[in-house]
Design goal:
There is one protein chain. The protein is α+β, with helices and mostly antiparallel strands and about 100 residues long. The chain has one domain. It is about 30% helix and about 10% strand. The chain has 4 helices and 4 strands; from the N terminus they run H-H-E-E-H-H-E-E. The strands form 2 sheets. The protein has a two-stranded antiparallel ribbon with strand order 1-2. The chain has a two-stranded antiparallel ribbon with strand order 3-4. Strand 3 and strand 4 form a beta hairpin. The two termini are about 20 Å apart.
């Protein structure tokens, strides 16, 4: 089974060319090349909890420090953590896993 990026899993329509780009803009996770390949994702697609300005619960979210606790309760976060197992990266700046 292929690993989904957040915009594919959540069906938010904020990826480039997505249905909601005109009204909500492109999500920073779908554009940020800094995290490409981490947790097997495209751009920040499997690191959305670490990317500032992502959209969740109808609101733009803040920085990693501001949102990480709520992100840990997200079904997508839990899915990525389970799929990656011991290779899961929570914080790439600290090379912190699990």
């Amino acid at each position: 089974m292929p690993k989904l990026n957040c915009w594919e899993s959540k069906k938010c329509g904020r990826e480039p060319g997505g249905a909601n780009v005109q009204s909500l803009g492109v999500c920073p996770a779908a554009e940020d090349p800094s995290f490409h390949g981490i947790n097997g994702g495209q751009k920040g697609g499997r690191m959305c909890w670490y990317v500032s300005g992502t959209f969740c619960g109808g609101k733009v979210q803040g920085t990693y420090a501001q949102k990480v606790i709520s992100c840990m309760n997200c079904d997508f976060f839990k899915q990525v953590k389970e799929e990656e197992g011991g290779a899961f990266v929570l914080n790439p700046d600290k090379q912190h896993t699990n």
